[in-house]
Fold this protein.
Amino acid sequence: MYMINCPWCGTRDQAEFVAHGEAHIARPEQPDALTDEAWGDYIFFRDNPKGLHFERWVHTHGCRRWFNVARNTANYEIYASYKPDEAKPEVPQT
Amino acid sequence: MSATRTSNTGQLNRQQPLSFQFNGQPYTGFEGDTLASALLANNVFLIARSFKYHRPRGVFSAGSEEPSALVQLETGAHTLPNCPATEIELYDGLIAHSQNCWPSVKYDIGAVNNVLSRLFPAGFYYKTFMWPKALWMKYEHVIRHSAGLGKSPTVADPTNYDHQHLYCDVLIVGGGSAGLSAALAAAKTGAEILLINDQAEWGGALLSDTQTINDAPALDWINHAIHTLTEMPNVRLLARTTVTGYYHHNYLIANQRITNHLGPTAPTDIPRERLWKVRARKVVLATGAIERPLVFAENDRPGVMLAGAVRSFLNRYGVLLGQNIVILTNNDSAYALGIDALAAGANVTVLDTRTDISDDLLALTTQHALSIQLNSTIIDVKYKGTIQSVDVAKLNQDGSDIVSKPETIPADIVACSGGWTPTLHLYSQAGGKLKFDPDTHSYLPDEAQTLAPDAQFAGSCIGAFALEDCLAQGHATGLNAAEQCGFKTDGIKVDALNTASQLVCNELRPLWVLPCAHPIGNGPKKHFHELHNDSTIADIALAERENFISVEHLKRYTTTGMGTDQGKTSNVNALNVMAALRNKPVGEIGTTTFRPPFTPLTFGAIVGQNCGDLFLQKRTSPMEPWHQVRGAQYEDVGDWKRPRYFPRSGENMDEAVQRECKATRDSVGILDATTLGKIDIQGKDAAKLLNMVYTNAWSKLGVNRCRYGIMLNEHGMIIDDGVTTRLSENHFHMTTTTGGAARIFNWLEELLQTEYPNWEVYCTSVTEQWAVMAINGPKARDLLAKLTDADLSNESFPFMAMLETEVAGVPARIYRISFTGELAFEINVPARYGLHVWEAVMAAGEQYNICPYGTETMHVLRAEKGFIIVGQDTDGSVTPDDADMNWIVSKVKKDFIGKRSLSRSHTAQAGRKQLVGLLAEDPSFVLPEGAHIVDGTNTAPPMKMLGHVTSSYFSPNTGHSIAMAMLKDGHKIMAKGQMGKSLYVALMDGSRQKVTVTGSVFFDKEGVRSRG
């Protein structure tokens, strides 16, 4: 059970949040212009790294806002939380 | 064997005798006893039968590591299985029973397994009962019965359990010398301290020792420490509390046993147990060490025990377990027992596997006249109901064999010590790695690769066995932890503490498995490394021969460490044996990872108050009181309790549903539709959002007009449907399925926050703000006209329109939409008026024989019309085309969620399952939902499966059964005019029902009734 910093509310127990997978994947502006392969990559394929992962979370049982988290999937360290429109933060090399 | 109460040792209250029963026999003990110490004091050594061979077993330890003396505590609703007798505090009237034996612990039929033990090696069950596969279910039943541990209670526990969250700066796990010392130091900094002790008494190993601190008994120091800590406002002490789990980010679970020690007569207005969910900034582990057994021939006999446990029973519980005590050891620590037992009046012989001992130790044995034999081992334990004697022989140079003729020594207790294993379960649970430390011959934290950076250690859990070191380390670690939390530690004084010299685990001979007269595992004498699951050295050897050499495979193949004791006394010895078999240093074969819980948790503790009415929230509509009175039968839909049907007296569900269906289409019926998801959507980009989440177009929808829509996920699959109404230019009222309400609301929020943050749209869930009743049937308009002045004519209030007016004197929105195909009106009123309006409608409808109906009739009526239910006729793999709903997919919209996926090669290919209607050859036969559609080639499996039935009912309005189904290429079959094509539906009894494919609309195919 993590302690997660919601950029709007502050640090809370993981029980208040839900995780939603890899962050920084924008919906393509013109889906029709994409090949089947490119579209399939958007809807099906996600990175599954051991180590640094930028991922989406939502404060479901709190402010209900979405945000991103930089987390280490191997040692569970959370380096940063940031708002959806912010750039990826600088984090230690893993 | 004759155990006796001592007159002058132990921390018992001898003024308070307690009576208890074990296996129906009455006994007495004292306040301060455990069940184990009281039984032993009464000379009850045979407590249980072992797991596999049903061998007699007794008390082996004095703590939570107990692998053998597991009992069924109490009876009936209060009973708990698999309780270590060493952990049960004695109370007056306690009742306990042996487990795993029949008819009694003395005469146990399952003991025949011991005679037949050659037939039961490790993996026996997997190998033997594999064939024929179909019989495994039967074998398993018999095996589980004969290999059972305790019995689960069969009636509900009348007591209550609690959960509580707690935040602290420094959590200290362990109330022994190191933990107390850490708490005293850390508390002085002002940090919030939580100190947890698994036993009722504070002091840990000191309680069993004869140590002094500052020349006074150590118990005085403990009492002073507890007094000091209790007085401090920043310290919370929890006794009788076991930290059972250590998870990410310093989240720990601790179970406090609040009234268990009072038995079934404990007050019921306080919880029996409380589960603490602790979030600590730093964690100090002062969890001590567990003695490691030596493994020798017949080492499982009742009366063979850990040396420290024998000492604990003597010094803490006032029981001298025997007159002739033989100690078998490979280190110095067990000599302390020898000296204490001699002083208590027993005959003691120390057998030491070492060839040499230190001069200091030798001098000490001489001073106490302690009889010792070096380089010796026990090669047999003679047992006849009690231990009679042991056979002793000299070891060869490497300890692999014996070199002398055996000598018989009288014995009634055998106390063994193979050193001490630091207790690092919690650290390992948290992701901490262990590495083998050759100096202490034990596993210690590998701080180079830890995943639990906030854990710190003090005392014997990192191999510091001497009291002086425990106190010093505790102090330093406590201060360090507080300092890391930001508290100042300058000027905090150290109490000078002096301790006497001690016999601790050092100079250990790394030899744990001891030879006997025949090769180990190849003769009648058994060497048990694992008492809980009855696993022997021969089993490890077998695992090695069959290449189960990885420690994780070894564990599972031999079941070592998989019992309720988690292998606290067996794991390290098993690793030692495997390392020896593989000719590798023990540090190179790895360790298994410890998993929570450290000791078993009751289901009550895990569940807490989340049971009964508090298990799940129950949502009901404002009309619920009416439904209750009318005897509604309910169905769970998400968290909602929805009326399923309203039986009249004597009716079963089928009869009630047939009547409700008929009555609705003949005159008028009413459904409580409050549970429908409702989302209020406002903002200048609201229509834009609808265009994105629905497949059809919304921009041109007129004000006060309704439109049906389906939603797809990005994979192109249907995820929800419903009717949305435009209330004004930038204001919509969306409805979703009952089950999809929360999911769809979350999804809209997600899109608006993450994909389209610049759109101006505001979504509000209004599901519970509106009470909804749907009146359906040819008399619906006549009925409604009695309750409102509004013009309900087709011209002014057409199908798919909304009217804001008053109904029964309260403001209402009426939506003219229909899920039955009938003339229908969905009356929405503020929730607080729901019951009032419902009752008004029922009264007004009396002249039309208005029929309240539930979800089951709703299902039949909509199936008669071929309307899908998302989640029943669709399953997350159905596109609009599959559902025969291409009419609702816009061809002109540039984009909407899921659009691109509809033309993916896989989604667009032939051979997909598609929605069709099915009619059974026997018109009275209702096909089972979920049944497979097969072609006619084979009459028995394997049969070619072409699809499945999704909805199936008897339709009273058509007079025959109807079904909807997903069928491979179903639309091609319909398009080719093969509507009558014969297929089969396979039934559970092995027979088949012939079916014909039809369109999916069975009633009012022209759709005139709803528009009338």
